[in-house]
Amino acid sequence: MKAHSFTNKPNEYCRHTLTKFNDISMKDSFASKLTYDCLEEICKHLKNDKASLFSCVLLNRSWCKMAIPVLWSRPFENPMYGNNLNIFWIYISCLSMNDKQRLENKGIRLSNPSQRPLFDYPKYLRGFDCLNFQIALNQWVGKTGLHFNSNNLMDKLSPTELKFKTELCNQILGPYLLSHSKNLRHLKYDHDSTGILNILTTYSSNEFFQMFIKLETLEFKDTIFHENWVSRAERISQFASKLSLCNRKLHNISIALEIGMKKQIQPKYCRPILELIKSQNSLKNLEICEFWNSSCSNLFFDALKSQSNSLTYLSLTRLSQYHLLLPVLCQCNNLVTLEFWTIKEHDERDLDFAGLTCSKRQLSIKKFICYDHGDDPDFLTLVRGIIIRMANKNLRELKFQNVTVELLDLIHIYTSNISNLYLTIDYSTLLHLLPILSSLRNLEYLYLFEYKKISLTFELIVHMAKSIPKSLYYLDVTFQLTPVMLKILLENCPARLNVLVLHIDGMDDKYLKVLIEYAERYQSLDTFKFDGNNIKFSHEMYNKAERVISVIRNFRTFTLK
């Protein structure tokens, strides 16, 4: 038995090609003759393929100069482990002698303080992810030791020393990287990153201006449960206030502030954060969790209104006062996607917003997404129903974590142009959906998630299959179909599927045999994706399937017999 993971390797063709560049003739005939514009485009294309970028560094000086800025543009975007942590030695080598001396004066041993790197790496920083930086720094300090009195760099630190040295390195390195970056475009502040917000007091207003003048994306996420929540909120507020003065070109803002003990951020701290949104000239994407009390609601909706001509994506978590939201949405003529994460239940005083169900105003949104089960299904149906009515024929995509029969009826009446439908359903809503499904003549993508186990019968499978419109090419279902049920589904489906996604435990060769027969008969199925526990396919059957289905991709490691 041999375990396999058949996930596609990114940019495999590029990596294979780049290995040939090590040949001298290839360098002379191709690599050295490309223009700088071509080199730049190639390196940008490979930004997620670190191995190929490292190959580019080794080709020649021109390739190296183009690849290094891409490699070092966002080093902390993902968590770091193992040898990757050595990036901190390189960054420390970039520090001034004063900062290095400051570290040594506090007992942090540097192996070669006078060493300078070949490149000024901090200036290439385009994105800074505070939490990943902080976690990686903690691991690096713990791994290397940096011990007070020991000559052995690998000696372990006591918890007190580890905390002290990590905080000191954070306070020096974090602001240093931000202040020396020439083109910072993405800042992700995730929870309390010691030293990062201290740039408010460390640097002058002009230096602050220079750091963030080119920022395009700001992500703020903090969970404030402990006693210093007031000072944390104050620092975030000060940061937002300064940023709104120096940068009005943010395209993406994401703010999620969670306050414990049922506290709320005081209005004086809320206002600068909301004013930051309002100050932008062309905000395109906004994700926000309601952290303000009702006294600041008008400030938020005024800020939202100020971006009505540019906003294309809006994601709201635990928002209240929908009667104030809907008139603003009507003015957002370029809004494509509206997303709700947890619909906050209504206040009795806000029930007048239900009158908007009769509104003839049109919403421009094409994608409406709502992730919420909710304790009050009637209120959920009311909120979703208003949006569906007001967007009606503009809607192309609906994604609901849970639906009611009433909501399905609204989908049937108002969304005749829908092309993508994602629903979580149970037995009763599935039965109600099937007649509606057959009427959706433009449906191309269907995803059905079974959140309560549905007892499948052959009659129900046939009914489901015949309800699928001919326009469908992508089907993704979580039903626990047997091989026989799968065959019945495919044989009775009027659509010729291009993509099929199954989430079934215990799949074996019988399932592949059904898919091979379908692919050979209709010549339409070119992608099969699957997921589940205890999946076992034989080499022979899997290879046969690969000959008739272009892409076979799994979401987990599975076993070939």
Descriptors:
561 residues; Leucine-rich repeat, LRR (right-handed beta-alpha superhelix); 18 strands; 15% strand; disordered N terminus
Widest sheet: strand ordering: 2-3-4-5-6-7-8-9-10-11-12-13-14-15-17
Oligomer: single chain
Write the CATH fold name of the domain at 428-561: Leucine-rich repeat, LRR (right-handed beta-alpha superhelix)
Low-pLDDT parts are: 1-30
Give the fraction of residues assigned to helices.
Answer: 40-55%
Q: What is the rounded distance between the termini?
A: 5 Å
Note the total helix count: 22
> Mean of residue pLDDT?
82
Question: Class by helix and strand content?
Answer: alpha/beta
Biggest sheet overview = 15 strands, parallel
Q: Any idea of the CATH class of the domain at 428-561? A: Alpha Beta
CATH superfamily of the domain at 428-561: Ribonuclease Inhibitor
Could you tell me the radius of gyration in angstroms?
A: 28 Å
Q: What characteristic shape results from the CA principal axes?
A: globular
Number of strands: 18
Residue fraction in strands: 15-25%
CATH architecture of the domain at 428-561: Alpha-Beta Horseshoe
Tell me about this structure.
This protein is of the alpha/beta class and 561 residues long. Among the domains are: 12-71, no CATH class; 312-418; 428-561, Ribonuclease Inhibitor (Leucine-rich repeat, LRR (right-handed beta-alpha superhelix), Alpha-Beta Horseshoe), CATH 3.80.10.10. The chain has helices spanning 12-19, 24-29, 36-45, 50-57, 61-71, 87-94, 97-105, 130-144, 159-180, 199-202, 205-212, 229-246, 267-278, 297-306, 322-331, 377-391, 405-414, 427-437, 458-467, 483-492, 509-522, 539-548, and strands at residues 2-4, 127-129, 186-190, 217-224, 252-259, 285-289, 313-317, 337-341, 367-371, 397-400, 420-425, 445-450, 474-477, 499-503, 527-531, 536-537, 551-554, 558-560. A 15-stranded parallel beta sheet has the order 2-3-4-5-6-7-8-9-10-11-12-13-14-15-17. Helix 1 (12-19) runs parallel beside helix 4 (50-57), helix 4 runs antiparallel to helix 5 and helix 17 runs parallel beside helix 18 (427-437). The longest helix is centred in the N-terminal third of the chain and has 22 residues, at 159-180. Residues 1-30 have low confidence and may be disordered.
